[in-house]
Design a protein that fits this description.
Distance between the termini: 46 Å
Structural class: alpha/beta
CATH topology of the largest domain: TIM Barrel
Number of domains: 2
Helix content: 40-55%
Radius of gyration: 23 Å
């Protein structure tokens, strides 16, 4: 099946383009200063599209003020009131996220579709497992099939008004249901897919759930843009998204750190050592692999694919490059020696 693309403020989503990282502000949108501050922090962290809640007309009007002051593509998140979508389109939104089914009368959906069509804006149909239509739940229950049927019904509604500039999401707080729904939707449609596990939780568990759900789909070749949903500072969502994309080999954002879990053979205090290496490499944009290993067993041999690395001994460690040992230094000099090797090579 041919895969479609959409364009969000100049960013291509779908059709084999690099997976795009999204997040959503958690400020009150009508607090323009706070929202602008958070958007700029998200952009600095690597966010490529940001979504803003538009729950009322004050937020819709503020959206326009925000749009004038940022270059990042902005998505207006709309529920229930079609007039908010129309206002957001007029205010300069780059994409509208709605559930056509909760907008009400089909004529209201038509007005939103026509307003987006005039400006060439895509619409994301966002289906959540916890808020499905009653008739679909009655037929399919709370299942992956129900989410997909809801999405297909919303597509048909937009298609009635000759609108097909669409992106889809089918999110659940259940990882298995989310993965199953996206796999089914991928087989049945060619629209770009926005991946995520909704209401995933706080940073630790939310990142685990998102890594399993989003990562599984990405490894299947499914998905075009991702949002990691965390109960935390949205910047943490960007860090997690970048880590997921780097871990599955789809994008690189800097050094990849390989470190062993330690065991009884380890004669060096490896945990703080690895943490210090990670801290020192943060923000570096070189696409290299750095190994921090605890002993000779897991040293240059197992980490031979790394560009640079250290392997612990008793109070000292080996320094190596591409599997070749280049020196032996005391433990308290290991990180400095490693960083010198990395920066000078």
């Amino acid at each position: 099946m041919q895969r479609k693309t959409i364009t969000v403020g100049g960013v291509t989503v779908g059709g084999g383009a690099p997976i795009v990282i999204q997040s959503m502000t958690n400020t009150q949108t009508d607090d323009v200063a706070a929202t602008l501050s958070q958007i700029r922090r998200l952009e600095a962290a690597g966010c490529e599209i940001v979504r803003l809640a538009v729950p009322d007309m004050n937020a819709a009007r503020a959206f326009g003020q925000i749009r004038e002051q940022v270059s990042l593509p902005l998505v207006a998140d709309i529920h229930f009131d079609y007039r908010l979508a129309l206002e957001a389109v007029a205010a300069g939104a780059d994409k509208i996220r709605i559930n056509p089914g909760n907008i009400g009368d089909p004529d209201r959906v038509r007005q939103v579709a026509e307003a987006c069509a005039r400006k060439g804006l895509p619409i994301r149909i966002g289906v959540n497992g916890g808020s499905l239509e009653r008739d679909i739940v009655a037929t399919f229950g709370h299942t992956p099939e129900a989410m997909v049927e809801s999405a297909l019904g919303h597509i048909a509604l937009l298609n009635r008004f000759d609108f097909d500039n669409i992106c889809l999401s089918v999110k659940s707080s259940s990882v298995p249901d989310t993965v199953a729904a996206y796999r089914l939707l991928h087989r049945r449609t060619g629209y770009p897919l926005h991946l995520g596990v909704t209401e995933a939780g706080t940073t630790y568990m939310g990142t685990v759930k998102s890594a399993i759900g989003i990562g599984s789909l990405l490894l299947d070749g499914i998905g075009d843009t991702i949002r990691v949903s965390l109960t935390d500072d949205p910047v943490e969502e960007i860090r997690a998204a970048k880590a997921i994309l780097q871990s599955v080999g789809l994008r690189r954002f800097g050094p990849d750190i390989v470190s062993c879990p330690t065991c009884g053979r380890c004669q060096i205090d490896l945990i703080p050592l690895a943490e210090e290496v990670e801290r020192r490499l943060e923000g570096m944009d070189r696409k290299i692999t750095v190994a921090v290993m605890g002993c000779a067993v897991n040293g240059p041999g197992e980490a031979s694919a790394a560009d640079f690395g250290i392997a612990g001994g008793k109070g000292e460690g080996l320094l190596f490059r591409h599997g070749e040992i280049v020196g032996k230094v005391p433990m308290d000099e290991l990180v400095d020696a490693l960083m010198m090797l990395v920066t000078e090579t």
